[in-house]
Amino acid sequence: MISLKISLSILLVVMTINNIPVKAAPQFDMFGGYDILGVCINNCAQCKKMYGAYFEGQLCADSCLRFRGKIVPDCEDIGSIAPFLNKMELH
């Protein structure tokens, strides 16, 4: 009888844990701060999607690595993405 109660209690705990909703959290580095390098590279990818051939995504990602994410591009701030924009020439 006691082992049946224990088994039912364990089953109840497992079922309860499985029904707890899980929310996505931002990426953190091992020191508890935001993974700024990841944010930088993700922003480069987002800008590449927005601006297409006018945006040098690889150059942006290389800059993230070179400066260790200290300069994060903001796709809506022309000053932060100006080094990665190029002119498309029509021929």
What report would you give on this structure?
By secondary structure, the chain is mainly alpha-helical. It is 52% helix and 0% strand. The protein contains 4 helices and no strands. Helix 2 runs antiparallel to helix 3. It is elongated. The N and C termini lie far apart (86 Å).
List the helices and strands and how they pair.
Blueprint: H1 2-18, H2 36-51, H3 57-66, H4 78-81
Short key terms for the protein model shown above:
91 residues; mainly alpha; 4 helices
What are the low-pLDDT stretches, counting only 5+ consecutive residues below 50? none
What general form does the structure show? elongated
Order of helices and strands: HHHH
- N-to-C CA distance: 86 Å
Specify the helix fraction band. Answer: 40-55%
Estimate the strand proportion. under 5%
Based on CA atoms alone, the radius of gyration comes out at 23 Å
Work out the helix count.
4
Q: What integer is the average pLDDT?
A: 78
